[in-house]
TrEMBL record:
One of its GO terms (biological process) is L-leucine biosynthetic process. InterPro entries: 2-IPM_HCS-like (IPR050073), 2-isopropylmalate_synth_dimer (IPR013709), AIPM/Hcit_synth_CS (IPR002034), Aldolase_TIM (IPR013785), LeuA/HCS_post-cat (IPR054691), LeuA_allosteric_dom_sf (IPR036230), LeuA_bact_synth (IPR005671), PYR_CT (IPR000891). CDD domains: DRE_TIM_IPMS. Its cofactor is Mn(2+). It comes from the Bacteria. Keywords: Acyltransferase, Amino-acid biosynthesis, Branched-chain amino acid biosynthesis, Cytoplasm, Leucine biosynthesis, Manganese, Metal-binding, Transferase. Pathway: Amino-acid biosynthesis; L-leucine biosynthesis; L-leucine from 3-methyl-2-oxobutanoate: step 1/4. This is 2-isopropylmalate synthase. The lineage of its organism: Bacteria, Bacillati, Chloroflexota, Anaerolineae, Anaerolineales.
Length: 544
């Protein structure tokens, strides 16, 4: 097999070996087996299942994967199962013991070739390194036909020395030469040149596949991997979500989607079923507990989400204006238009229409103003927020009951109690006191005791809008009328309970909460035609 005899890039997944070297990423044997099954389903060519000499558990996990994933029952070609080993007989024996039951086993052995690693870590001379590579690659080859050799820290190694070591590895039976940028040090042009130099100068290189293995210390792992492939490498070593030692490895999903999306440039293919990518990303994130940053390419939660109005408008007109890949192509759910402070009228109108609200131009302008005001206070506007805004827009706030006074007693020494004094539409005052789980709950109960209109609290959000001890607290609440059904002409489902938003601001957060609650309740009363004073408004009664 020559270095560049075809345009097929082999995907070598090392999530279970280098990926597991991420601090805290340890997986159980059962989880590793599940991951290996997923990788095989996705079409990975080689699975580096572990480092069998690391522990008996690691060896067992690799053996199980070799048995169960490295053999196929239906006649299809199973992935190569690979075990990593230092250039030591003991490590190589353990790697072989672990992978030999696979239909296509591979031993991957490595030895550092950079001066700094040889001098300080290995305490070996260049000559000793060359001899060790000769001995250990030959030994691995005596056990297994498929041997991969990696000159660790190749990115910082003397290229002339590298050519020599790699030539010896080929002579000794290595069939894949993997070139690691172990500490993520190289620049894409440098790494590409390193690969070209190896292809041009290593004796016998045409007998081996050149592979690249990059780390992300400078955020260049994917760029370096692609540069290596452009220079003639035909195997890429990658991990799902880019997990791995320190800043991680090259992300599988990034390399595969670069090659697919920019196929006309590279003319390279992989055997990966890209629709499995998001599923595998979630599996790895769940098993390792390493969450994926929202803006991570391909698999981040925001990879196909659009918030800016101009982008959303473009997306609504033609998806390709702001998306270079279809979310379905990587198994992600459909593109999301997230409504927030940067959104515009096109996106708002479209979302309202999808909720069943056909607004006229003037109504839309009014709604948009309210929407922007809310978006300044709330990071994301949900469908429920929009429904509350529609209700608010139709039932303009009209103050029936006003807060005339509020007193609370709370702390750790007694029952949180609130006393409220409300003025009804006729100007009469009503006082109620209630206990609650806290002062806000007690205040809401006391308001309910005066107004006595059934509702349920759907949302309660507190924001501090200024800094310092005298911060102004803002509260928004959303109430749902119990048994109340929508009958406003715009609602899609006439049996949907309506929701009403309320807003209050005060330096006292309990007062702000009471104001917000009362404002939502007032809207609910207006909407339902309850204009009059309460039948049973009581004074100075304590309600528990
Ligand atoms: C770049 C990479 O990602 S390489 C893979 C790194 N992964 C791991 O290290 C995970 C698994 N490792 C382990 O479980 C342990 O390190 C073991 C079991 C392999 C070895 O443990 P120990 O015998 O206690 O050695 P320790 O890890 O402390 O030191 C490594 C030894 O291996 C030597 N060594 C390092 N790389 C190689 C190599 N490629 N070939 C031969 N020897 C090597 C070091 O020089 C050192 O030798 P010394 O003890 O004579 O100084
Ligand atoms: C063992 C080798 C391939 C490695 O993980 C590295 O150098 O980063």
């Amino acid at each position: 097999m020559s270095t560049a005899d075809n345009n097929r890039v082999r995907i070598f997944d090392t999530t279970l070996r280098d990926g597991e070297q991420s601090p805290g990423a340890t997986m159980t044997s059962a989880e590793k087996l599940e991951v290996a099954r997923g990788l095989a389903r996705m079409g990975v060519d080689i699975i580096e299942a572990g480092f069998p000499a690391a522990s008996p558990d690691d060896l067992e996990a690799v053996r199980k994967i070799a048995d169960e994933v490295g053999n196929s029952a239906d006649g299809s070609t199973p992935p190569v199962i690979c075990g990593l080993a230092r250039c030591s007989k003991n490590d190589i024996d353990k790697a072989w013991e672990a992978v030999k039951s696979a239909a296509r086993p591979r031993i991957h052995t490595f030895l550092a070739t950079s001066d700094i690693h040889m001098e300080y870590k290995l305490k070996m001379t260049r000559e000793q390194v060359v001899e060790k590579v000769r001995d250990m690659v030959s030994y691995a080859h005596s056990l297994c036909d498929d041997v991969e050799f990696s000159p660790e820290d190749a990115g910082r190694s003397d290229p002339q020395f590298l050519y020599k070591v790699l030539g010896v590895a080929i002579q000794s039976g290595a069939t894949t030469l993997n070139i690691p940028d172990t500490v993520g040090y190289t620049m894409p042009a440098e790494f590409g040149a390193l690969i070209s130099g190896i292809i041009q100068n290593t004796p016998g290189v045409e007998k081996a596949v050149i592979s690249v293995h990059c780390h992300n210390d400078l955020g260049l792992a994917t760029a370096n991997t692609i540069a290596g492939l452009q220079a003639g490498a035909r195997q890429a070593e990658v991990t799902i979500n880019g997990i791995g030692e320190r800043a991680g490895n090259t992300a599988l999903e990034e390399v595969v989607m670069v090659l697919q999306t920019r196929e006309p440039i590279f003319k390279l293919t992989t055997g990966i079923d890209t629709t499995q990518i998001v599923k595998m990303s979630k599996l790895i994130s769940n098993y390792t507990g390493i969450t994926v940053q929202p803006n991570k390419a391909i698999v981040g939660a925001n990879a196909f989400a659009h918030e800016a109005g101009i982008h959303q408008d473009g997306m609504l007109k033609n998806q390709q204006t702001y998306e270079i890949m279809r979310p379905e192509s990587v198994g992600a759910s459909l593109s999301k238009l997230v409504l927030g402070k940067h959104s515009g009228k096109h996106a708002l109108k479209t979302r309202l229409e999808s909720l069943g609200y056909e607004l006229g131009d003037d109504e839309l302008v009014k709604m948009f103003e309210r929407f922007k005001m809310l978006a300044d206070k709330k990071k994301m506007i949900t469908d429920a927020d929009l429904e509350a805004l529609v209700s608010d827009e139709l039932y303009q706030p009209r103050e029936l009951y006003s807060l005339d006074g509020l007193q609370v007693a709370c702390g750790t020494m007694g029952m949180p109690t609130a006393t409220v004094r409300l003025r009804d539409p006729e100007g009469e005052l009503h006082v109620q006191a209630c206990v609650g789980t806290g002062p806000v709950d007690a205040a809401f109960k006391a308001i309910n005791a005066v107004i006595q209109f059934q509702n349920s609290l759907q949302e309660f959000v507190v924001h501090a809008v200024t800094e310092g001890i005298d911060a102004l607290g803002e509260v928004t609440v959303r109430l749902q009328g119990e048994g109340e059904t929508a009958n406003v002409g715009l609602q899609p489902d006439q049996n949907q309970p309506r929701t009403f938003g309320g807003y209050g601001a005060d330096t006292d957060i309990v007062v702000a909460s009471a104001k917000a609650y009362l404002s939502a309740l007032n809207k609910m009363l207006v909407a339902s035609g309850h204009y009059g004073p309460p039948e049973k408004a009581s004074t100075e009664a304590i309600v528990y």
